Amino acid sequence: MTKKLTFNELNLSKDILKAVADMGFEEASPIQSEAIPVILQGKDIIGQAMTGSGKTAAFGIPVIEAIDPKQRFPQALILCPIRELAIQVAGEINKLSKYKAPLAALPIYGGQPIERQMQALRKGPSIIIGTPGRVLDHINRGTLNLKNIKIAVLDEADEMLDMGFRDDIEAILRNTPTTRQTLLFSATMPAAIIHLARAYLKDPHTIRVAHEKLTVPAIEQIYFEIESFKKLDLFTRLIDLHDPALSIVFCNTKRRVDDLVSDLQARGYAAEAIHGDLTQQKRNKVMERFRRKEVDILVATDVAARGIDVSDVEAVFNFEIPQDEESYVHRIGRTGRAGKSGKAFSLVSGGEMYRFRDIKRYTKAVMTRLPVPSFQEVEEVKINKLLTTIRKVIGEKKLEQYTPVIESLLKDDVTSLDVAATLLKMYMQATTTSKKAARR
Ligand code: AMP
After folding, report:
1. Probe target for ligand 1 pocket from 55, 56, 185, with the most ligand atoms within 8 Å of CB
2. pLDDT class for 36, splitting at 50, 70, 90?
3. 389-406 pLDDT, tens per residue?
4. 57 lines ligand 1 (CB under 6 A)
5. How far is the CA of 28 from the centre of ligand 1 (A)?
6. How do residues 405-432 score in pLDDT, each as one tens digit?
């Protein structure tokens, strides 16, 4: 088992724990569990981690712990290859630091007016997150002083070297104290990275999340490539199309779980949340209702779903792709229990593709990519199901109560075909907006 700790086990300050809880993180990801304790001891590290593994918080949390917000000068420097990443990292760090040091992080990157950055730098932000070219520019202008830097982070170091930033990085690091702590994160470890680490890191610890041999349950695994904002729509189509008796849907944070449950309930689905913020009593109640099939969609975080053993779960959905392959295997193992068949569906957005490929590689599982089902396909399936039901009800006779109503309509120059088509249209419209409500 890859080591995974709760945030409480990581010896973090209350301010950070509160921020992490606000962000809805339920437990530390493998890279966080491995890296945070070592960084907090003051050691240099080389971390092999990809985007999506939670690496930003892995270095961001110890960086925030290291700064003193009362000192109005830069104490930590994070170098990133591109401006989008610098902005993203600054955003994540500012969320994590909101109780200890609000707006401690300032992103500086090429393309933004330099005067504005100078003004922001004059306020003395504690954490600078920048692209190498622009950081060097500020150093040369005398608008950024790195003499009090305690921690320097090279994020996506392989990318930075590929982009030709080696000289800039070296020049920047020479402007920081040699007593600094240095953290290097890279998805790959080519020779150039090893050389860079040898030159600028002191006796570094290498942290690579171990990939264990995993036994993947033999269930059908399907995935869709879909933009994030279209996931809800796709998910409801899949539910309508497959109509699984019970499903478990996984999200990566408690907050996302709550949001999805609200969205689903608003659309008329019988969905409930289960995650670590709920009391044991509430969790038991939800699970009881799920077993009794009063709730047929359970939206869960990994931690909350760990003990779940319900035999009729016909489908598992990865609404968000998990941060490591073990969680993936564990999630999909919630279906196909007690010898029953099950399906696992993964909804993969562009940003999650690398992580998903990693999961595919390490699990060696057969995963089939399917096109997103069209609205028409879903309608067709729904109509076919309805026709079967209509045939059954006609077979049962007992329509005396209703036939006079239809007859009264037929007097107004309306055919029975018109009436039937109108009723079908009304039914389809009603079930599109509120599937479950119409069913009851
Ligand atoms: P990163 O690998 O740093 O780009 O992080 C990818 C995403 O995972 C970001 O949206 C983070 O906010 C989120 N994240 C980081 N750590 C955790 C965690 N322990 N649990 C859930 N989500 C996390």
Report:
1. 56
2. very high
3. 889 888 888 888 888 888
4. yes
5. 9
6. 888 888 778 888 888 889 888 887 776 6
| Chain position carrying tokens 């931690």 | 303
Query: Residue 128 carries which DSSP code?
Result: E
**What domains lie within the chain, and their CATH numbers?**
7-210 (3.40.50.300), 215-373 (3.40.50.300), 376-439 (no CATH)
Residue nearest to atom 7 of ligand 1 (CA): 52
Q: DSSP assignment of 304-357, as one string?
A: HHTT---TTEEEEEESS--SSHHHHHHHHTTSS-TT---EEEEEE-GGGHHHHH
Rounded Cα distance between 329 and 409, Å, is 57
Angle between helices 191-200 and 166-174 (to 10 degrees): 10
Per-residue pLDDT of 171-228, as tens digits, reads 999 999 999 999 999 988 999 999 999 999 999 999 988 777 777 778 899 999 999 9
Residue 60 in contact with ligand 1 by CB distance below 6 A: no
Could you tell which of 80, 92, 156 is best to mutate to test the pocket of ligand 1, judged by most ligand atoms within 8 Å of the CB?
92
For atom 5 of ligand 1, the residue with the nearest CA is 54
**How many residues make up the chain in this entry?**
440
Q: Hey, which of 156, 252, 275, 353 would you mutate to test ligand 1's pocket, going by the most ligand atoms within 8 Å of its Cβ?
A: 252
The Cα–Cα gap between 77 and 127 comes to 6
Query: Of all atoms in ligand 1, which is nearest to the CA of residue 25?
Result: 20
pLDDT in tens, 42-75: 999 999 987 788 999 999 999 999 999 999 999 9
